[in-house]
């Protein structure tokens, strides 16, 4: 399989995606009162077929320089004993990172269903940003992923989301309800110093992570800050957390097209990223578009299939081989279960 960057560059949609990222960067620059686009560079370069070019705000450029060196990244100031401060990013024996996904969180869920069946993740360090923060929290808290899909269906039916064409302001309360229902009372204890939730601080767009939680409510607040797509979730541009303002934790990844160093951990982490699945066809902005519940179940099955195929080709062994509990060939029972859910 070709490297991620090469596949993106070769994609026929690459120019369109670059334009989308440039426009997104300009919008977010305006929201945080940093310098906007350079008028002299704003047009589409029709002659060369290139994407629109926008002048990067100084704050953005400075933050990118910090993110490019993982050893300089610092966790948010923790409200707990300083003796429990987070360890360096690459300290763990095994790391599983969940990238931003939006509605493709269900693809991630399917992939993690396979991985958690075939590997012991009980002591794995989990990194997650945006929708990936939800899945990382579920895994660390011991949430049954099949039950999570069923609960999402119940919540969706109650809110009649499948009948609505406009979903702005809808998903924020529903995601919080999903977390409130599924997370156990001691979720914050299980997650402290085991997961790292990515946040993007505003102003400055500085990517940070938080790994300690004083209560279950604070854990949920951290996840909600990480998933906060401006305006889309609850009509608000930013999410307040611990006295500061944040937005989607994988904003930088969306704009740059690459997973952040916090997720990659110098190549040590296995990253669960729907964009790595060559059999999925989508527009990058599809992550905000709601699917029918049948499509949601298909996403679960696609994620499971991707992880299975990757495992059969040895793709999971470099990061997780010491944690294997089920041989890669023994997949029929689990895959049949996923297919039965789709048919139902």
From TrEMBL:
InterPro entries: Acyl_Trfase/lysoPLipase (IPR016035), PLPL (IPR033562), PNPLA_dom (IPR002641). The keyword ATP-binding does not apply. The active site is at 130 (nucleophile), 248 (proton acceptor). GO terms for cellular component: cytoplasm; lipid droplet; membrane. GO terms for biological process: lipid homeostasis; triglyceride catabolic process. Keywords: Hydrolase, Lipid degradation, Lipid metabolism. Residues 96-266 form the PNPLA domain. One of its GO terms (molecular function) is triacylglycerol lipase activity. Pfam families: Patatin (PF01734). It comes from the Eukaryota. A motif (GXSXG) lies at residues 128-132. This is PNPLA domain-containing protein.
């Amino acid at each position: 399989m070709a490297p991620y960057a090469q596949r993106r560059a070769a994609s026929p949609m690459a120019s369109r995606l670059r334009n989308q990222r440039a426009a997104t960067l300009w919008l977010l620059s305006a929201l945080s009162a940093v310098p906007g686009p350079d008028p002299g560079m704003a047009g589409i370069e029709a002659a060369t077929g290139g994407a629109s070019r926008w002048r990067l705000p100084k704050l953005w450029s400075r933050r990118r320089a910090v993110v490019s060196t993982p050893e300089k990244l610092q966790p948010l100031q923790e409200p707990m004993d300083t003796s429990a401060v987070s360890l360096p990013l690459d300290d763990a024996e095994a790391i599983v990172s969940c990238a931003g996904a939006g509605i493709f969180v269900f693809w991630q869920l399917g992939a993690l269903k396979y991985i958690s069946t075939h590997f012991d993740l009980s002591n794995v360090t989990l990194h997650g940003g945006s929708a990936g923060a939800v899945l990382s929290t579920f895994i660390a808290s011991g949430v049954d992923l099949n039950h999570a899909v069923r609960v999402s269906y119940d919540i969706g039916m109650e809110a009649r989301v499948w009948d609505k064409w406009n979903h702005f302001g809808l998903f924020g309360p529903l995601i919080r309800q999903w977390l409130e229902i599924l997370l156990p009372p001691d979720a914050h204890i299980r997650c402290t110093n085991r997961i790292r939730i990515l946040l993007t601080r505003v102003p400055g767009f500085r990517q940070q992570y938080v790994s300690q939680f004083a209560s279950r409510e604070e854990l949920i607040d951290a996840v909600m800050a990480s998933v906060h797509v401006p305006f889309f979730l609850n009509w608000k541009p930013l999410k307040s957390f611990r006295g500061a303002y944040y937005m989607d934790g994988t904003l930088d990844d969306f704009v740059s097209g690459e997973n952040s160093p916090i997720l990659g951990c110098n190549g040590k982490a296995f990253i669960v990223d729907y964009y790595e699945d060559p059999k999925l066809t989508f527009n990058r902005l599809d992550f905000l578009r709601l699917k029918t519940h049948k499509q949601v179940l298909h996403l679960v099955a696609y994620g499971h299939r991707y992880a299975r195929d990757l495992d059969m080709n040895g793709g999971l062994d470099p990061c997780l081989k010491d944690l294997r509990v089920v041989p890669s060939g023994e997949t029929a029972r689990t895959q049949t279960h996923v297919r039965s859910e789709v048919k139902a």
